[in-house]
Amino acid sequence: MSDPRVYFVNDTTTSSNWGCRGTTRALRSLVESTGATIGDTAYLDDLHHSDRLLTRVPGVTDWMARVAGDVTDARRRTLGALRLTTGGDRREAWKRYESLTSRWDAVPLTVDEYDGAAERVVDGELFAAQRDAIEACDAVVINGEGSVYDRRRKGRVLLFLAYVAAEHLDTPTALVNHTADVSDPVVREAVATVYPLLDDVVFREPRSAEACEAFLPGAVGDHLGADAAFRRRPIEDRDAWASVAEREEYYGVWPDSAAGFDPREPYVCVGGSSIFDRPDRPQYDPEPAYASLCRRLERRVAPVVLTASCPTDARLFRPIADELGLPLIGPRTPVTQAIDVLGNADAYVGGRWHPGIYAATGGTPVVTLTANTYKTAGLVDHLELDAPTFDALALHRHVSEIASLVEEYVDRGEPLRRRLRERADELAELATRNVEALPGEADDRL
What positions does the domain Polysaccharide pyruvyl transferase occupy (predicted)? Predict the structure, then answer.
Protein backbone atom coordinates (compact mmCIF):
# COMPACT_ATOMS: atom_id res chain seq x y z
CA MET A 1 0.00 0.00 0.00
CA SER A 2 1.60 3.30 -1.05
CA ASP A 3 0.75 6.59 0.63
CA PRO A 4 -2.14 5.17 2.68
CA ARG A 5 -4.91 7.40 3.94
CA VAL A 6 -5.11 7.19 7.72
CA TYR A 7 -8.08 7.89 9.95
CA PHE A 8 -6.49 9.45 13.04
CA VAL A 9 -8.69 8.79 16.08
CA ASN A 10 -8.50 10.74 19.33
CA ASP A 11 -6.80 13.95 18.33
CA THR A 12 -6.42 15.88 21.59
CA THR A 13 -4.94 19.11 20.22
CA THR A 14 -8.10 20.97 21.23
CA SER A 15 -7.55 20.05 24.89
CA SER A 16 -6.54 22.61 27.49
CA ASN A 17 -3.66 20.35 28.51
CA TRP A 18 0.01 20.68 27.57
CA GLY A 19 0.45 16.92 27.37
CA CYS A 20 -2.49 16.23 25.10
CA ARG A 21 -1.59 19.01 22.70
CA GLY A 22 2.07 18.09 22.57
CA THR A 23 1.82 14.32 22.18
CA THR A 24 -0.90 14.44 19.52
CA ARG A 25 1.09 16.82 17.34
CA ALA A 26 4.15 14.61 17.72
CA LEU A 27 2.22 11.45 16.87
CA ARG A 28 0.57 13.03 13.83
CA SER A 29 4.03 14.06 12.64
CA LEU A 30 5.24 10.49 13.08
CA VAL A 31 2.31 9.16 11.03
CA GLU A 32 3.01 11.64 8.24
CA SER A 33 6.75 10.92 8.32
CA THR A 34 5.99 7.39 7.03
CA GLY A 35 4.51 8.85 3.86
CA ALA A 36 0.93 8.31 5.01
CA THR A 37 -1.69 11.01 4.66
CA ILE A 38 -4.09 11.75 7.50
CA GLY A 39 -7.30 11.67 5.53
CA ASP A 40 -9.69 12.31 8.41
CA THR A 41 -9.54 13.02 12.13
CA ALA A 42 -11.73 12.19 15.10
CA TYR A 43 -11.15 14.81 17.79
CA LEU A 44 -11.54 13.95 21.46
CA ASP A 45 -14.21 16.62 21.78
CA ASP A 46 -16.31 14.86 19.14
CA LEU A 47 -15.84 11.44 20.72
CA HIS A 48 -16.55 12.64 24.23
CA HIS A 49 -20.20 13.60 23.92
CA SER A 50 -23.13 11.33 23.13
CA ASP A 51 -24.95 13.97 21.13
CA ARG A 52 -22.13 13.97 18.58
CA LEU A 53 -22.23 10.21 18.14
CA LEU A 54 -25.94 9.48 17.97
CA THR A 55 -28.44 10.02 15.22
CA ARG A 56 -30.09 13.10 16.65
CA VAL A 57 -33.28 12.66 18.64
CA PRO A 58 -34.63 16.09 19.72
CA GLY A 59 -34.70 16.46 23.49
CA VAL A 60 -33.60 12.90 24.22
CA THR A 61 -30.11 13.30 22.77
CA ASP A 62 -29.45 16.47 24.76
CA TRP A 63 -30.51 14.76 27.98
CA MET A 64 -28.29 11.76 27.27
CA ALA A 65 -25.30 14.01 26.65
CA ARG A 66 -25.80 15.75 29.98
CA VAL A 67 -26.04 12.47 31.87
CA ALA A 68 -23.14 10.73 30.11
CA GLY A 69 -20.81 13.75 30.01
CA ASP A 70 -17.54 13.42 31.88
CA VAL A 71 -17.69 16.59 33.99
CA THR A 72 -21.13 18.06 34.63
CA ASP A 73 -23.22 19.28 37.51
CA ALA A 74 -25.53 16.35 36.85
CA ARG A 75 -22.66 13.94 37.37
CA ARG A 76 -21.70 15.50 40.67
CA ARG A 77 -25.28 15.39 41.96
CA THR A 78 -25.77 11.80 40.82
CA LEU A 79 -22.50 10.65 42.36
CA GLY A 80 -23.43 12.33 45.62
CA ALA A 81 -26.70 10.41 45.74
CA LEU A 82 -25.04 7.11 44.85
CA ARG A 83 -22.45 7.54 47.60
CA LEU A 84 -25.29 7.61 50.10
CA THR A 85 -26.37 4.18 48.85
CA THR A 86 -22.83 2.77 49.14
CA GLY A 87 -22.06 4.01 52.63
CA GLY A 88 -19.69 6.62 51.24
CA ASP A 89 -17.65 4.17 49.13
CA ARG A 90 -16.49 6.44 46.30
CA ARG A 91 -15.18 3.67 44.06
CA GLU A 92 -18.38 1.64 44.26
CA ALA A 93 -20.47 4.78 43.66
CA TRP A 94 -18.45 5.57 40.55
CA LYS A 95 -18.91 2.06 39.15
CA ARG A 96 -22.66 2.28 39.73
CA TYR A 97 -22.72 5.68 38.06
CA GLU A 98 -20.89 4.40 34.99
CA SER A 99 -23.16 1.36 34.74
CA LEU A 100 -26.21 3.60 35.05
CA THR A 101 -25.20 6.22 32.50
CA SER A 102 -24.00 3.65 29.99
CA ARG A 103 -27.60 2.45 29.62
CA TRP A 104 -28.42 5.67 27.73
CA ASP A 105 -25.12 5.99 25.95
CA ALA A 106 -24.13 5.21 22.38
CA VAL A 107 -20.93 3.59 23.63
CA PRO A 108 -21.47 0.05 24.94
CA LEU A 109 -20.21 -0.76 28.41
CA THR A 110 -19.63 -4.52 28.17
CA VAL A 111 -18.33 -6.79 25.45
CA ASP A 112 -21.71 -8.53 25.30
CA GLU A 113 -23.14 -5.32 23.86
CA TYR A 114 -20.48 -4.85 21.18
CA ASP A 115 -21.98 -6.79 18.28
CA GLY A 116 -25.43 -5.27 18.58
CA ALA A 117 -24.01 -1.75 18.74
CA ALA A 118 -21.55 -2.50 15.93
CA GLU A 119 -24.40 -3.58 13.65
CA ARG A 120 -26.06 -0.22 14.28
CA VAL A 121 -22.83 1.48 13.32
CA VAL A 122 -22.62 -0.46 10.07
CA ASP A 123 -26.24 0.44 9.34
CA GLY A 124 -25.51 4.12 9.99
CA GLU A 125 -27.69 4.44 13.09
CA LEU A 126 -24.72 5.19 15.39
CA PHE A 127 -21.32 6.74 14.76
CA ALA A 128 -22.26 7.48 11.16
CA ALA A 129 -19.50 10.03 10.60
CA GLN A 130 -16.92 7.72 12.16
CA ARG A 131 -18.09 4.79 10.05
CA ASP A 132 -17.82 6.86 6.86
CA ALA A 133 -14.32 8.01 7.81
CA ILE A 134 -13.16 4.46 8.48
CA GLU A 135 -14.51 3.27 5.15
CA ALA A 136 -12.88 6.17 3.30
CA CYS A 137 -9.42 5.42 4.72
CA ASP A 138 -6.92 2.60 4.34
CA ALA A 139 -5.98 2.32 7.99
CA VAL A 140 -7.02 3.50 11.45
CA VAL A 141 -4.49 4.81 13.96
CA ILE A 142 -5.93 5.30 17.44
CA ASN A 143 -4.02 7.57 19.80
CA GLY A 144 -4.75 5.88 23.14
CA GLU A 145 -2.84 8.20 25.50
CA GLY A 146 -4.10 7.66 29.09
CA SER A 147 -7.66 6.71 28.19
CA VAL A 148 -7.88 2.96 28.92
CA TYR A 149 -8.56 2.58 32.63
CA ASP A 150 -11.56 1.87 34.84
CA ARG A 151 -14.78 2.27 32.87
CA ARG A 152 -14.10 5.79 31.70
CA ARG A 153 -16.06 6.68 28.62
CA LYS A 154 -13.10 8.01 26.67
CA GLY A 155 -11.44 4.60 26.90
CA ARG A 156 -14.59 2.67 26.10
CA VAL A 157 -15.23 4.65 22.93
CA LEU A 158 -11.69 4.03 21.66
CA LEU A 159 -11.90 0.28 22.32
CA PHE A 160 -15.31 0.07 20.69
CA LEU A 161 -14.24 2.01 17.58
CA ALA A 162 -11.19 -0.24 17.31
CA TYR A 163 -13.49 -3.26 17.49
CA VAL A 164 -15.83 -1.89 14.83
CA ALA A 165 -13.00 -0.95 12.47
CA ALA A 166 -11.16 -4.25 12.75
CA GLU A 167 -13.99 -6.76 13.16
CA HIS A 168 -16.92 -5.26 11.26
CA LEU A 169 -15.38 -2.89 8.69
CA ASP A 170 -12.28 -5.01 7.97
CA THR A 171 -9.88 -2.06 8.19
CA PRO A 172 -6.29 -2.38 9.43
CA THR A 173 -6.29 -0.83 12.90
CA ALA A 174 -3.59 0.05 15.43
CA LEU A 175 -4.06 1.28 19.00
CA VAL A 176 -0.85 3.05 19.96
CA ASN A 177 0.85 5.58 22.24
CA HIS A 178 -1.11 4.46 25.26
CA THR A 179 -1.30 3.33 28.86
CA ALA A 180 -3.73 0.55 29.75
CA ASP A 181 -4.77 -0.20 33.33
CA VAL A 182 -6.88 -3.37 33.16
CA SER A 183 -7.51 -3.87 36.86
CA ASP A 184 -11.24 -3.24 36.35
CA PRO A 185 -12.90 -6.51 35.14
CA VAL A 186 -15.09 -4.75 32.56
CA VAL A 187 -12.09 -3.04 30.98
CA ARG A 188 -10.04 -6.22 31.19
CA GLU A 189 -12.67 -8.18 29.26
CA ALA A 190 -12.88 -5.46 26.62
CA VAL A 191 -9.11 -5.38 26.19
CA ALA A 192 -8.94 -9.17 26.06
CA THR A 193 -11.55 -9.10 23.27
CA VAL A 194 -10.29 -6.16 21.23
CA TYR A 195 -6.49 -6.28 21.35
CA PRO A 196 -6.12 -9.67 19.60
CA LEU A 197 -8.19 -8.36 16.66
CA LEU A 198 -5.91 -5.41 15.97
CA ASP A 199 -3.02 -5.20 13.55
CA ASP A 200 -0.86 -3.56 16.18
CA VAL A 201 -1.00 -2.56 19.84
CA VAL A 202 1.74 -0.32 21.24
CA PHE A 203 2.12 0.79 24.86
CA ARG A 204 3.96 3.91 25.93
CA GLU A 205 5.43 2.47 29.14
CA PRO A 206 6.43 -0.99 30.41
CA ARG A 207 3.85 -1.47 33.17
CA SER A 208 0.98 -1.49 30.70
CA ALA A 209 2.82 -3.88 28.38
CA GLU A 210 3.32 -6.27 31.28
CA ALA A 211 -0.30 -5.97 32.44
CA CYS A 212 -1.60 -6.84 28.96
CA GLU A 213 0.92 -9.52 28.05
CA ALA A 214 -1.70 -12.28 28.17
CA PHE A 215 -3.82 -10.62 25.46
CA LEU A 216 -1.14 -10.23 22.80
CA PRO A 217 1.26 -12.46 20.87
CA GLY A 218 4.98 -12.41 21.44
CA ALA A 219 7.01 -10.99 24.27
CA VAL A 220 6.26 -7.89 26.33
CA GLY A 221 8.94 -5.95 24.50
CA ASP A 222 7.29 -6.59 21.14
CA HIS A 223 4.54 -4.15 22.05
CA LEU A 224 6.55 -1.63 24.03
CA GLY A 225 7.10 1.78 22.50
CA ALA A 226 7.42 5.23 24.00
CA ASP A 227 5.23 8.30 24.05
CA ALA A 228 5.51 10.44 20.94
CA ALA A 229 6.08 13.39 23.28
CA PHE A 230 9.66 12.19 23.74
CA ARG A 231 10.30 13.60 20.27
CA ARG A 232 9.77 17.12 21.58
CA ARG A 233 12.79 19.09 22.77
CA PRO A 234 13.45 22.25 24.79
CA ILE A 235 15.68 24.94 23.36
CA GLU A 236 19.33 23.85 23.65
CA ASP A 237 20.95 27.26 24.05
CA ARG A 238 19.81 28.25 27.53
CA ASP A 239 21.35 31.71 27.30
CA ALA A 240 19.52 32.43 24.07
CA TRP A 241 16.26 31.22 25.61
CA ALA A 242 16.81 33.16 28.81
CA SER A 243 17.40 36.39 26.92
CA VAL A 244 13.84 36.08 25.60
CA ALA A 245 12.18 34.43 28.61
CA GLU A 246 13.49 36.95 31.13
CA ARG A 247 11.47 39.77 29.61
CA GLU A 248 8.79 40.99 31.97
CA GLU A 249 5.73 38.74 32.00
CA TYR A 250 6.93 36.76 28.96
CA TYR A 251 5.47 33.68 30.65
CA GLY A 252 2.61 35.57 32.27
CA VAL A 253 -0.13 34.17 30.06
CA TRP A 254 -3.47 35.54 31.28
CA PRO A 255 -4.90 34.97 33.83
CA ASP A 256 -1.72 33.67 35.45
CA SER A 257 1.48 35.51 36.31
CA ALA A 258 5.11 34.50 35.98
CA ALA A 259 6.36 37.60 37.78
CA GLY A 260 9.56 36.82 39.64
CA PHE A 261 10.62 33.97 37.34
CA ASP A 262 14.31 34.38 36.47
CA PRO A 263 15.27 31.77 33.84
CA ARG A 264 18.99 32.50 34.31
CA GLU A 265 18.93 31.33 37.93
CA PRO A 266 18.38 27.78 39.27
CA TYR A 267 14.73 26.82 39.79
CA VAL A 268 12.59 23.76 40.51
CA CYS A 269 9.28 23.12 38.74
CA VAL A 270 6.35 21.72 40.71
CA GLY A 271 3.28 20.27 38.98
CA GLY A 272 -0.04 18.72 40.00
CA SER A 273 -1.41 15.21 39.57
CA SER A 274 -4.15 13.67 37.46
CA ILE A 275 -5.25 11.61 40.46
CA PHE A 276 -7.02 14.67 41.86
CA ASP A 277 -9.41 14.47 38.86
CA ARG A 278 -10.67 11.02 39.85
CA PRO A 279 -14.08 11.05 41.55
CA ASP A 280 -13.59 7.46 42.74
CA ARG A 281 -10.62 8.23 44.99
CA PRO A 282 -10.72 9.38 48.63
CA GLN A 283 -11.27 13.07 49.11
CA TYR A 284 -8.00 14.85 49.78
CA ASP A 285 -7.07 18.51 49.86
CA PRO A 286 -3.48 18.68 48.56
CA GLU A 287 -3.13 22.46 48.80
CA PRO A 288 -1.54 22.63 52.30
CA ALA A 289 0.94 19.87 51.43
CA TYR A 290 1.94 21.55 48.17
CA ALA A 291 2.47 24.84 50.00
CA SER A 292 4.65 23.05 52.55
CA LEU A 293 6.59 21.31 49.78
CA CYS A 294 7.23 24.59 47.96
CA ARG A 295 8.51 26.23 51.13
CA ARG A 296 10.79 23.27 51.82
CA LEU A 297 12.19 23.24 48.27
CA GLU A 298 12.84 26.98 48.36
CA ARG A 299 14.75 26.65 51.63
CA ARG A 300 16.80 23.62 50.65
CA VAL A 301 17.16 23.65 46.86
CA ALA A 302 16.08 26.58 44.70
CA PRO A 303 13.17 28.94 43.93
CA VAL A 304 9.98 27.18 42.85
CA VAL A 305 8.06 27.71 39.61
CA LEU A 306 4.53 26.29 39.67
CA THR A 307 3.58 24.58 36.40
CA ALA A 308 -0.13 24.11 35.75
CA SER A 309 -0.40 21.95 32.65
CA CYS A 310 -4.20 21.86 32.78
CA PRO A 311 -7.09 23.79 34.38
CA THR A 312 -7.27 21.40 37.36
CA ASP A 313 -3.69 22.21 38.31
CA ALA A 314 -4.29 25.91 37.79
CA ARG A 315 -7.22 25.91 40.22
CA LEU A 316 -5.05 24.12 42.78
CA PHE A 317 -1.98 26.30 42.36
CA ARG A 318 -3.41 29.81 42.03
CA PRO A 319 -4.08 30.20 45.76
CA ILE A 320 -0.60 28.84 46.54
CA ALA A 321 0.99 31.23 44.04
CA ASP A 322 -0.83 34.13 45.66
CA GLU A 323 0.02 33.03 49.21
CA LEU A 324 3.73 32.37 48.59
CA GLY A 325 4.35 34.86 45.81
CA LEU A 326 5.40 32.16 43.34
CA PRO A 327 5.39 32.38 39.54
CA LEU A 328 2.73 30.24 37.87
CA ILE A 329 3.10 29.00 34.29
CA GLY A 330 -0.53 28.39 33.33
CA PRO A 331 -2.32 25.97 30.99
CA ARG A 332 -2.78 28.54 28.22
CA THR A 333 0.99 28.74 27.78
CA PRO A 334 2.04 27.39 24.35
CA VAL A 335 3.40 23.88 24.67
CA THR A 336 6.80 24.72 23.18
CA GLN A 337 7.28 27.48 25.75
CA ALA A 338 6.25 25.14 28.57
CA ILE A 339 8.77 22.54 27.37
CA ASP A 340 11.52 25.15 27.55
CA VAL A 341 10.65 25.89 31.19
CA LEU A 342 10.48 22.22 32.19
CA GLY A 343 13.51 21.10 30.21
CA ASN A 344 15.75 23.80 31.67
CA ALA A 345 14.67 23.36 35.30
CA ASP A 346 16.99 21.92 37.93
CA ALA A 347 14.29 19.35 38.82
CA TYR A 348 10.60 18.62 38.27
CA VAL A 349 8.17 17.27 40.89
CA GLY A 350 4.69 16.17 39.85
CA GLY A 351 2.14 13.52 39.01
CA ARG A 352 1.69 14.56 35.39
CA TRP A 353 2.93 12.16 32.71
CA HIS A 354 3.73 14.52 29.84
CA PRO A 355 5.32 17.33 31.86
CA GLY A 356 7.62 14.65 33.28
CA ILE A 357 8.58 13.68 29.73
CA TYR A 358 9.10 17.29 28.67
CA ALA A 359 11.37 17.79 31.66
CA ALA A 360 13.42 14.66 30.96
CA THR A 361 14.03 15.60 27.31
CA GLY A 362 16.15 18.49 28.57
CA GLY A 363 17.88 16.37 31.21
CA THR A 364 15.76 17.62 34.11
CA PRO A 365 15.54 14.99 36.89
CA VAL A 366 11.96 13.91 37.57
CA VAL A 367 10.42 13.10 40.97
CA THR A 368 7.02 11.53 40.40
CA LEU A 369 3.76 11.53 42.33
CA THR A 370 0.99 8.99 41.77
CA ALA A 371 -1.44 9.73 38.94
CA ASN A 372 -4.84 8.46 37.76
CA THR A 373 -3.09 5.22 36.68
CA TYR A 374 0.34 3.71 37.29
CA LYS A 375 1.71 5.71 34.36
CA THR A 376 4.04 7.96 36.40
CA ALA A 377 5.63 4.89 37.97
CA GLY A 378 5.97 3.59 34.41
CA LEU A 379 7.75 6.81 33.48
CA VAL A 380 10.29 6.20 36.25
CA ASP A 381 10.82 2.71 34.81
CA HIS A 382 11.28 4.11 31.29
CA LEU A 383 13.78 6.72 32.47
CA GLU A 384 15.65 4.03 34.43
CA LEU A 385 15.55 6.03 37.64
CA ASP A 386 15.77 3.93 40.78
CA ALA A 387 13.30 6.00 42.78
CA PRO A 388 9.84 5.76 44.34
CA THR A 389 6.62 7.34 43.10
CA PHE A 390 5.16 9.22 46.05
CA ASP A 391 1.47 8.99 47.01
CA ALA A 392 -0.20 12.22 45.87
CA LEU A 393 -3.17 11.49 48.13
CA ALA A 394 -0.85 11.49 51.15
CA LEU A 395 1.48 14.21 49.95
CA HIS A 396 1.79 15.75 53.40
CA ARG A 397 3.58 12.61 54.59
CA HIS A 398 6.24 12.77 51.89
CA VAL A 399 7.27 16.43 51.80
CA SER A 400 10.63 15.83 53.47
CA GLU A 401 11.42 12.72 51.37
CA ILE A 402 10.57 14.52 48.14
CA ALA A 403 12.71 17.52 49.03
CA SER A 404 15.62 15.22 49.93
CA LEU A 405 15.37 13.36 46.61
CA VAL A 406 15.22 16.64 44.67
CA GLU A 407 18.27 17.85 46.54
CA GLU A 408 20.12 14.62 45.76
CA TYR A 409 19.28 14.87 42.04
CA VAL A 410 20.39 18.50 41.84
CA ASP A 411 23.66 17.67 43.60
CA ARG A 412 24.37 14.96 41.01
CA GLY A 413 24.51 17.74 38.44
CA GLU A 414 25.47 17.39 34.80
CA PRO A 415 26.29 13.65 34.77
CA LEU A 416 22.69 12.81 35.71
CA ARG A 417 21.29 15.39 33.29
CA ARG A 418 23.39 13.99 30.47
CA ARG A 419 22.23 10.44 31.21
CA LEU A 420 18.59 11.55 31.19
CA ARG A 421 19.02 13.37 27.87
CA GLU A 422 20.61 10.29 26.36
CA ARG A 423 17.81 8.09 27.66
CA ALA A 424 15.22 10.54 26.30
CA ASP A 425 16.94 10.29 22.89
CA GLU A 426 16.62 6.50 23.03
CA LEU A 427 12.95 6.78 23.92
CA ALA A 428 12.39 9.25 21.09
CA GLU A 429 13.67 6.60 18.70
CA LEU A 430 11.51 3.97 20.41
CA ALA A 431 8.48 6.22 19.81
CA THR A 432 8.67 5.32 16.10
CA ARG A 433 7.33 1.92 17.20
CA ASN A 434 3.91 3.61 17.29
CA VAL A 435 3.74 3.71 13.48
CA GLU A 436 5.39 0.41 12.54
CA ALA A 437 2.05 -0.95 11.35
CA LEU A 438 2.05 1.61 8.54
CA PRO A 439 3.89 0.54 5.37
CA GLY A 440 6.37 3.43 5.22
CA GLU A 441 9.40 3.95 7.45
CA ALA A 442 9.16 6.62 10.14
CA ASP A 443 11.60 9.47 10.19
CA ASP A 444 13.86 8.79 13.17
CA ARG A 445 15.35 12.27 13.27
CA LEU A 446 14.72 14.17 16.50
Answer: 104-369
